[in-house]
Design goal:
Layout: E1 10-14, H1 19-30, E2 34-38, H2 42-54, E3 58-61, H3 69-82, E4 88-91, H4 110-138, E5 141-146, H5 160-179, E6 184-191, H6 197-202, H7 205-214, H8 223-234, E7 245-248, H9 259-273
Parallel strand pairs: 1-2, 1-4, 2-3, 4-5, 5-6, 6-7
Helix pairs in contact: 1-8, 3-4, 4-5
The protein binds nicotinamide-adenine-dinucleotide (NAD).
C-alpha cells in the first residue's frame, strides 16, 4: 500500500463530513495533511474533525455551502489567516438528495435540473475559482474533482446528475489546460457504485446488483478505494497526470455493454453442458 507524507500541507475537502469525502479527509490527515472539512452539515463535519483529532490527525471543520460565494470567501479568509496556503482541493460535495427527483428529460423539472447543476459543477467551479489564487501564489497545487460514471455515458433515468458530472469532467480539463503550466494539476475521479453509509441505507439491492453484474470486478467500491486515488492525485507521484478522468469503476465503463448478459449466457451454457 502507498504511503505519502503530506506534512505541512493543507487539503480542503468539500463534503468531507460523509462518505467518500469523509474517507478522504481521514486518509489525508493520516498522511499528515492539515485537513479542512468544508461541508454544509456542521454537526457531522465537527464530529469527523474531532474524531480525526482524537486519532492524532489535524482536521478542522469550516462550515461551507459550495453554492454560496459569500461562505466560500469566508472559508478562503479563514484558511489564509490561519495557514496561508492550500495544496489540495477535493471538490467532492454534491446535492445527492436531488437524484431522487431526477429522471428522463420529459419528466425532469427545470428547477431540479438547475439545482443539481448548482449543487455540483457550479459549486466546484466557485470553489476552484476561490482557491486557485493561493495555489497560484505558491506555484503548486492539485485539484481533484469527484465526478461519476454517470457523466461519461447516457443513463435512462438520470439526466441532471449526468449533465452535472459531465460538467465536472470538463471543468477538470479546463483547469488543467489553463493552470498546469503554473503548477496546478487538475484531475477527476469517476466512481461507479461506492458502498457509502447513505447507499447502504437507501440503494435497493436490485440497483446494487445491476452495478455488480456489469462491473468486471464483480464488486463495488469502498470509500477508501476512492480516497486512496485522491491521495495519489494529490501527491508528487502523480506529477505527470493532469486533465484526466480516472474511472474507479471496477471496469464498468470499459466493458462491452452486453457483458452481464453474456456472462449469464456462458454460465447457463456451461450448466447445460454438464
Ligand atoms: N456514492 C457513490 O456511489 C458515488 C458514485 C459516483 C460518484 N459519487 C460522487 O462522490 C461524491 C460524494 O458522494 P458520497 O456518496 O460520498 O456522498 P454523501 O452523501 O455520503 O456525502 C456528501 C457530503 O456532501 C455534503 N454536501 C452536500 N451538499 C453540499 C453543499 N452544497 N456544500 C457543502 N457540502 C455539501 C453533505 O453534507 C455530505 O456530507 C459526490 O460528488 C457524488 O456525486 C458517489
Amino acid at each position: 500500500m502507498s504511503d505519502y507524507s503530506f506534512e505541512g500541507r493543507v487539503a480542503v475537502v468539500t463534503g468531507g463530513a460523509s462518505g467518500i469525502g469523509e474517507a478522504t479527509a481521514r486518509l489525508l490527515a493520516e498522511y499528515g495533511a492539515t485537513v479542512v472539512i468544508a461541508d454544509i452539515d456542521r454537526e457531522r463535519a465537527s464530529l469527523v474533525a474531532a474524531q480525526i483529532g482524537d486519532a492524532g490527525g489535524d482536521a478542522h471543520s469550516i462550515p461551507t455551502d459550495i453554492r454560496e460565494e459569500g461562505e466560500i470567501q469566508q472559508l478562503v479568509d479563514a484558511i489564509s489567516g490561519r495557514w496561508g496556503r492550500v495544496d489540495t482541493l477535493v471538490n467532492n460535495a454534491a446535492s445527492l438528495e436531488l437524484t431522487e427527483f431526477d429522471g428522463d428529460v420529459l419528466n425532469l423539472s427545470p428547477q431540479v435540473f438547475l439545482d443539481t447543476v448548482r449543487g455540483s459543477v457550479f459549486g466546484a467551479f466557485l470553489m476552484s475559482k476561490a482557491l486557485l489564487p493561493p495555489m497560484l501564489d505558491r506555484g503548486s497545487g492539485s485539484i481533484v474533482n469527484i465526478a461519476s460514471v454517470s457523466g461519461m455515458a447516457g443513463e435512462p433515468a438520470l439526466t441532471a446528475y449526468g449533465v452535472a458530472k459531465a460538467g465536472v469532467i470538463q471543468l477538470t480539463r479546463a483547469l488543467s489546460t489553463q493552470y498546469a503550466r503554473r503548477g496546478i494539476r487538475a484531475n477527476a475521479i469517476a466512481p461507479a457504485f461506492v458502498n457509502t453509509r447513505n447507499n447502504e441505507t437507501y440503494a435497493s439491492p436490485v440497483f446494487v446488483d445491476v452495478y455488480r453484474r456489469n462491473m468486471s470486478t464483480g464488486f463495488t467500491a469502498e470509500t477508501i478505494d476512492i480516497a486512496r486515488l485522491v491521495a495519489f492525485l494529490s501527491s508528487e507521484d502523480s506529477r505527470m497526470v493532469t486533465g484526466h478522468v480516472i474511472a474507479a469503476d471496477g471496469g464498468l465503463t470499459d466493458t462491452s455493454p452486453i457483458s452481464a448478459d453474456y456472462v449469464a449466457f456462458l454460465s447457463e451454457a456451461a450448466q447445460s453442458a454438464t
